[in-house]
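Hi support team,

I'm opening this ticket because the web form for multi-chain structure prediction keeps timing out on my end. I have pasted the exact lines I submitted so you can reproduce it. The total is 1023 residues across two entries, so I didn't expect it to be a heavy job. Is there a limit I'm missing, or should I split the entries? Thanks in advance, R.K.
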Amino acid sequence: MQKPILEARNITKTYQMGEVTVHALKNLSIEFYPGEFVVLLGHSGSGKSTLLNILGGLDKATSGEVYFNHQLISEYNENQLTEYRRDSIGFIFQMYNLLPRLTALENVQLVAELANDPMKPEEALMILGMEHRADHFPSQLSGGEQQRISIARAIAKNSPLLFCDEPTGALDFKTGVLVLEALQRVNQEMGATTIVITHNSSIAELADRVIFLKDGQIQNIKVNKEKKSVRDISW
Amino acid sequence: MVNKYLIKSLLRELLHLKSQILSISLIVGIGVGVYFGFSSTHQSLLESRDHFYQEYNFPHLFAHLHKTPNYLLSRIKDLPGVKDTEGRIEHDALLTLPKLKEPGVVHFVSLPNGKQPNYSKLFLLQGRLPSAHSNNEVVISESFFLAHNLKLGDKFSANINGSKKTFVIRGVGVTPEHIIALQPGSSFPDDLHFTIAWVNHSALAPLLNMSTSFNSLVIQLNQPHYQDSVKSQVEQMLERYGLLQLLSRDKQMSAVYVREELKQLDVQAKTIPIIFFLVAAFILNIVISRLIRSQRTQIATLKSLGIGNYSISTYYFCFSLVIVILGTILGFVIGSWIGRNMVMLYGYYYHFPILKYKFTYHQLFISLLFSVLTAFFGTTKALKNIFRLSPAEALKPPTPINYKNKWLEKSLFFQQLAIQLRMIVRGVITTPIRSLSVGLGLSFAVVLLILGLFWNDSLNALMFSQFGIRQKETGQITLSREMEAKVVKQIERFPGILMAEGYRSIPVKIKFNNQEEVSSIKGFPVNYALTDVINETFTPLKIPKDGFHISKNLAQKLSASKGDILEIELLEGRKRKLRIPILNIMDSFYENQILTSRSHLAKILQTDDLVNSILFRTYLDPSELYAKLKNLPAVTSITYKDAAVKKFQETSAKFLLVFAFIFSLFAAAIGFGITYNNLRVTLAERDWELSTMMILGFRQSEVFKTMAHEITLLLIVFVPVGWVLGFYNARWILMKLSMEEFPIPFSITSLTFLIATFVIVMSTLVSYFIIYNGLKKMDLVATLKSRG
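Hello R.K., no limit was hit. The queue was backed up. Here is the completed structure from your submission:
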């Protein structure tokens, strides 16, 4: 049986909001396997972003453990977490988060320079079909274009994990399709474990596995025996 | 109108940005403090001086003469425009005090027996005047009394005209004429070796054979505008009696010193604060612009609720106003501290009888006005954006900045840069006003530092020129009369004297092109070894064998040039008039001088080869030499350069150290204030970008560098700008402040530039450190959510 690349065991996350204690995650356990495309689905407040933040080393769980390649990352200090993100994760954000003072190519180059075994930045742009926009600044690009640059930036590191936080959340349907196609292709061609959080249930049909979250707990896990192509879904 | 909810909001905003506000208030505070401190000190000294001059009858004219019969006093009094005259005897003598090993000089001034003079009255700080019939009681000047820790009743002896006489100190005092007690011919006050002694006329006159004559005259005019006509009449009348010098009040040495000091304070009060107000305005512009940008949605909401542009602008202007008013209050505290301490410090050097710290409401008002103007100019540009913003547009996110700069992107140099460096350069170039504000602020801090530090360099250059190369001698003997040059050989034969060289100095009045100057011709031996003739680069000048060189500043005053013929009137002897051609202009920074060889001077004066000053070099201990020379009847004074240097260095070092330290603190406050505020604004504006970089795996230090090195780049560009501005500013200030009578050579060493740079870099590093810690505390997820 395949060993998990990333594993959360009995994760609980609580925080204070004024006088109220919010239980964002309740004793949640989940495993992710190399190369799989996983969608975390749930409504706002279900705990999906909190889970992604904890898995990505951006936040710490109140209790429980997180393992990456059998290393206990939940005990890492800030510096170790930075190294973990630097070496192992490619992030894709809802608002693209491209650095405004760098061109598309430079945005990719900057991050590629961090990696031990990066892909050529130009190649990453080419995979996303954005090579013709290499010298453009983010302010000169549309939302879809920016998101595709953001994906190129994430894959250029050749990292084993790809975390996508509502990647189509700010895009219209047509542009969203282009972005999802790119994500699906990257997952298939590069083999990075891709975790996408979304509240859009249509996207779930693209995944190997869909994890339904509600009130900080896993409500259901669905394995898609036959994944759909992006062109076959709509929302 | 700004309603109470906006006021509440304003207070919350102020509290939220308290550290930035305090750093701006501090800069405004220092600006106000310097203005208020310096101008109130100026006011205090001015009032004390004017009060002293008025109450103690500071006369309008001072004449120094050879022995002149008393009956001329009434004739001068009868001249039109003259209100009153008073004759005195003044005499310099060697002084012996048991505690004083080095040579000292006492300058006697006669008093009407047991009474105050009518003019230049004595203010008694301690004790009493000499009693009417006493012939050995004196009142001496305060600085000498304090320097030697003397008590009333202590004694000193003086060698007057060859006879040694002992005097008893009965009082300590000061007159308006001696607020600074300067030995004639000396540039620095020397409290250890020089004192004024006021003595009964009947005690001094017989010793100098002047019972029915005087050699010093003071004249009070009916109106100051009679000055010129009275001067020329007095000159005519006294010509044949040997008028050495006729000075108006504004040329009197002590008055010159006090006036120049007042001028310096006034210039400093009016120039230095400008730097602080400008920097504060720059920072306010950065902070308020940022505040308005970050609150565009709130501004739009307020506008859509019907609150007008003026009300919203007033809100932000009030924000600036609170900052500058806080700064002004702080400035009053700093200023009154500076003022009180400066007045106290001046009290040690300028002996005003009553010196109280004072300030005027006018100064308070001007301080406040400058602060409000700072707020106005610092905020106006940012406020324009409020008027430009339409509510509909403001509710949308701001248009992203276009970082595309064609010139920059095309440049080969830019293309070679690392990506992070390209980010930094684009960040600097695409916000030109902010970058320029920060850069100029840093330059101004360097300017201020150079202003605080260069005095030390210039005074060191002065000391070097005066006492290093310039005076190769150990000391100088001043003779009471001209003597044959063979006296130099006699002195040289004293055991322990290694070398002696005599020169002759003749007071002259020079006329050229309707300009008139009083100066002196100095005759030196052609092959001099100890003499002080050098140019601005400290190279010794050749003494012309049979011609005249004049110093550059004298040539400038007379508008004379090489080859011109000057009319010279000798102020000694038979008052001969001569016409002398200028052989050369000396590039010397020293006061009005005409130089020639001693033999040439003797030839044109039709006298033997005479001298009246002797420079010497010796290995003897001052006390040993002093013991050998002080009984020579013709010796008026012996000055030992080491003693003078030591005293001057002690005095100046104390002043300069305090001055440099305070200026360094001020400049550091500017450096810190401007970099800290700019980094805070950058941190607030780019939090999203910085968080993104950290999430992508950049270390905090790497992320910090991308924002901090924008300041580093500005430092690299603008610190050298500060060096250049600082150099010219210091030179301008020195030119403004330098006294005609005592020019200071301008000099800045590389160490000054180095220290200035070090202070700015350190103050920047402190702000880096604080902001870096702020970056560490940044909540990445919360920051991203706030924008998402």
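A quick check on our side: Residues 175 and 642 of chain B are 29 Å apart (CA to CA). Let us know if the file doesn't open in your viewer.
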